[in-house]
Please model this.
Amino acid sequence: MASSADWVDLWERDDEKSLAPLSSAQLEFIDSLTSLCKDTPVNKETEDAEEGNRPSYSNLLQFHNWYTKLDNEMQCKNDARFQNILEYHAKCQQLSSILNQVLTHLKKLDEEYSAALSKTRSFYKSCDLLIQQQHGLIVAIEAINEKLSFFEELETMSKKFSSPTMLTLNESLVPLLNRLDECINFMSQNESNYLEASTYLNDYRRFQTSALHTIRTHVINTLKQTATQVMPENDNVLTPNESVFTLYYGKFQTNAHRIKTLMQQIEHRTNQSELYSQYLDDCHQCYFEIRESLIGSVLALAMEEMINSSGRNFCSLVRSSANLYIHICRDEYQLYFQFFSQMNASLSNFLDRLCMSLYDKLRPIVIHLEHLESLSEICALIKSEFIEENIHQDELESFVKTMENLLQDTQERLVYRCNIYIQTNILNYTPASGDLAYPQKLEMMKSISENLVADDEHRPMRTRSDSGTPQITEKTIDSQKAVDNKIKEKCEEFISFTYDYLAKDLNSFILATNFPAVTATAAMVSEGGGVSGDSTEEKAAESSVSPVKLCKLRLKELVQTYQSKKTSIEKSMSLYLANSETEAIIFKQVKTKIQLLYEQLVKILLTKFPSDSDKAELEIPPLKAFI
Model:
């Protein structure tokens, strides 16, 4: 037993002498199993049952038999498991063989798939290339067809342009002309690239010329036909009333939309040929001749009636006739753009001729006027109402130019008549006995103006605005400035005189109130250097009256005297100036100075009589009494 124990110890030793040394991992595994065995609970009942089932042997033979039996049973069990393992091994080999076959087939299939995929990709590339080639061919065919269509259009257009009725009435005319323009542009750009391009170009241009000529003829005939429909049968039917103008504008524009559509075809192609510009000029000429024949006669009749009905009211004549022509110019301007789409110099020329008829009617009347006020009123009227208000309107440009010419003529006539008036009535003036009857003559004229309503021709020129008077520029002397300076000088002198005249008594009162001794001495000296008996009596009377009452009496006399002078001055100004605005301007400066003097007087009185009772008894007059 000792040797067996030593042998076992050699197996279990963990040093170099160990027969079967274990690694650290194996030792850890053994420790883990040991701990698991300790932790696993032991079923005592099972253990007791196993102890009870164990056989008991009385001799060695029984044990040997039991052991042999147990050994045979164990060998049988081990042989069955081995057979099972062999069977499993055989099946695994068979399965492995099948898997190898499957892998072989899969590999072959993969190779076949790769080959098919390569062929498919190659096929797709070929298809893409074919599609690209097809698209290129389609584009080339379309380009060829597009270019070919410009040549093929010749036959189609030959048939369409053979019928003038179709050209003017068919709605397809505009698209057809646009297509014709495209063909002409193509042939012009490729004349050197194609052999027969120049021939086709000439044919297309011939078609275009024929179409535009047909349009021109149709438009002119339509305008003439429309003019015939609205034109009265004889001159006796002509009247300048509103219904005639409505007929000449309303019915005349019946075919305007169709004509404008056709005219646009010529207007858009005038840059291609001088012939087309000539076609457009022909249409313009026909249109304006017709309009001038329709409107000219009616305007002439209307002007004759205005001249006959206006009498000597020349301003009314100018205003009514000018307003008529303003209305006509605007209507003609709008009517033109209902037939044409582009501005043309012919319209300006037509309006110039139309407005010149107004100038021809009014100028003889103006240049024979002799009344200065009428000429001045006409100048103001033309400048303010008909030039300045309409100068930025395109449709009235011709009218404004005509009014400027008429204004120049009127101003020249006014200057001429002014010179004649100056020569006759100023430089060579010899006053008659009645001319010097002032202020009786002015008073008589004022009385007449209060009882009568003055006519427009006899209104004073001074109340009129200066905006319409002619502007005269002297090269040597500015006469207007000289006159203004002289008037200003005289006005200042008059203001100074008026102030001294009104303020004389007021200044004397202030001096007498503030320095009574000096005032008394000055009065005695002015009376001859002595004191008379009358002055002694006056002093005695004044000494018996209180200073407040005495000052009150003198204030009352002062106010009465001041208002009497002021009324006299205002009456004279009204009589000689006859202009309330000028009177107010002059008197304003006088009132300002009088107000300062009044404030000085009040300050002195309040200082001399400070008590409330004295102030109440004194009754200082208000500022209104002086201004």
The chain is about 80% helix and 0% strand. Residues 457-470, 472-476, 517-535 have pLDDT under 50 and may be disordered. The first helix runs from residue 2 to 12.
